[in-house]
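Page 47, continued from p. 46.
Same chain as before, 297 aa.
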Amino acid sequence: MTLTSPQRLPDEALVPLVRAYERTIAARRRQTVLGGIILALATLTAALVAEVDLGRLVANFDRLPTYLARLFVFDDGALAGRSVLLDIGEWYWGIARWLRLLAETLLVAYVGTALGFIGGFTLCFFAAANVGRWPVARFLAKRYLELCRTVPEIVFALIFVIAFGLGPLPGVLAIAIHTTGALGKLFAEVVENADMGPVEGTTAAGGTWLETMRFAVVPQVLPNFASYTLLRFEINVRGASVMGFVGAGGIGQDLIEAIRKFYYADVSAILLLIVGTVMLIDLATERLRGRLHGGQA
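Result:
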């Protein structure tokens, strides 16, 4: 087989092609510049409406490192002015109480995630477009899930504190409702991407809708459901840590008290406890998610 070199078009034939290429490039540049101008104007407008003051930010920026430095120095007593690292026992004087509150925070996140999983698991099959047979039920399920995840957890917690009083219960309910909305949305998308072959086979064999979901859909989507739930648990641990700010239980109540009373060493001690706990949970759930998807743990 003999290769032949491509023939060059005559100049008069190339001219319209070059002009068309230049017009296309120019149009794309105009679109890019116009998009950049619109984005800049939108950002500037948002900053003005939100009263973002760069001058104030720059003028007070030195306060941030000063505050962070004070978190790791004792404020009073015989050790005033010395680094907290010189006396870990004094730094973590409230470790027994903080660990108890931290355990309460983990339990709030765990129960809230479990209840949210049940809610999301139940509603996702009604919300999924490929398996939801009743349009009204699908519409209502999707709107309810949107409502659950649109309202911030802390707002739910405030409402439940007023309704049920102080303690972990408002935190559990707030996390459960928000988790239902978030997991229900993710679960529905997983179901919509499931292979419909087993669904059609089960339906053709005379299976009911419930049997079809149980034997044709759930086995396909369960690993992804578990993975999303573990990820959500990580998020809920962080969320439960601030539930105490509004009296909904957990270590957040001691953290906000330390912040308000300027107990700098206590703030850093509690924050490090929370960060360390979240990191350990993140590592553990990452390994579990890896095993669920057959990857390296």
